[in-house]
Sequence to fold (144 residues):
Amino acid sequence: MFNNLKRIFAIAMLSTTLGGIAIPSIASAQSSPNQDNSTYTQKHREGGWKNLNLNDAQKQQLKMLRAATAQRVQSVLTEEQRSKLAMTKQSGNYKGVWKSLNITADQKQQISDINKSSKEQTLAVLTPEQRTQLQQMKTAHNRG
Fold:
């Protein structure tokens, strides 16, 4: 059971982190495609969310949702954990950051609930066709 909880938490954290990184990339990818030449950003520009052809309203909704989710997750953390996370964000080295925060089981559950809600809200922003396309991209990514 503990392994399942760890797996769920890891997936939730990865989803939140990737969402936090991907959503801003969506807006910048369609507004200024040559702004950043880093491999990571370029990878997101060439595929993923851009392929969903989000309209401006959807982009704005997702941006607001991402910010609200990040704020809700921050509210679950202690001041010390938020400080560590902020320092990690500045350094850009995210490897092992969530383990180093020593998050309690209660915090894990709260964060998992927040991420589940955020995922549901994200999917609600998309059209049925976009949701289907997103699921197909995830399936293809998991196979590769």
Q: What stands out?
A: Helices lie at 2-31, 39-46, 56-76, 79-91, 97-100, 105-125, 128-143. The chain has one domain: 2-143. Residues 24-46 have pLDDT under 50 and may be disordered. Residues 27 and 59 are 7 Å apart (CA to CA).
